Amino acid sequence: MTALPSASLSWLPLLSGLNLALGLGLALWTLLFLFRIVLTWYPKVDLSRGAMRWIGAPTEPLLVATRRLIQPIGGVDVTPVVWVGLLSLVRELLVGQQGLVTLVLLRAQGLIVG
Predict the structure, then answer these.
(1) CA 102 to each of CA 78, 82, 83, 89, 96: distance values in angstroms, whole numbers, following the listed order
(2) Mean pLDDT over all residues of the chain?
(3) For residues 32 and 3, what is the distance between their CA atoms, to the nearest angstrom?
(4) What is the pLDDT of residues 38-85, one digit of tens each?
(5) Helix extents (H) in the chain
């Protein structure tokens, strides 16, 4: 096993913070889309008022763009489900157990060799 230069170790806190921020950000965004899915059961809820703005504002721009590509199926808007799947995939690819950022972090820490 070869030791990493000390200069590469200075990136560890930044890389660790990036891994954490990406993981938390993607998890939060997924949670917002899950709330959107639940809120479809309550069509009278206005997502532009009160606390519901915290759910509607970050998700609506993506949903509007996706609705142009994916039409409702049987009158049901499936775009929030599509985004939950996409965000889960991206989160796994980047910060999951075998994610790219995770593997770079582990390699920088010397926990994996290759």
Answers:
(1) 31, 25, 23, 15, 7
(2) 87
(3) 42
(4) 988 888 889 888 888 999 999 999 999 999 999 988 888 899 999 999
(5) 6-9, 12-39, 53-69, 79-95, 100-108
**Within a domain: residue 45?**
yes
What's the token pair of residue 37? 């899915």
Q: Does residue 11 form part of some domain?
A: no
Question: Could you list the residue range(s) of the whole structural domain that residue 72 is in?
Answer: 22-108
- Domain presence at residue 4: no
SS3 (DSSP) at 108 = helix
Looking at the domain assignment, is residue 16 inside a domain? no
Q: Determine contact, residues 84/92, Cβ cutoff 8 Å.
A: no
- Please tell me the total number of residues recorded for the chain in this structure: 114
The answer to whether the pTM exceeds 0.85 is: no
> Taking Cα atoms as reference points, which of 39, 59, 57 lies closest to residue 48?
57
How many independent structural domains does the chain possess?
A: 1
Rg value, the chain, Cα: 19
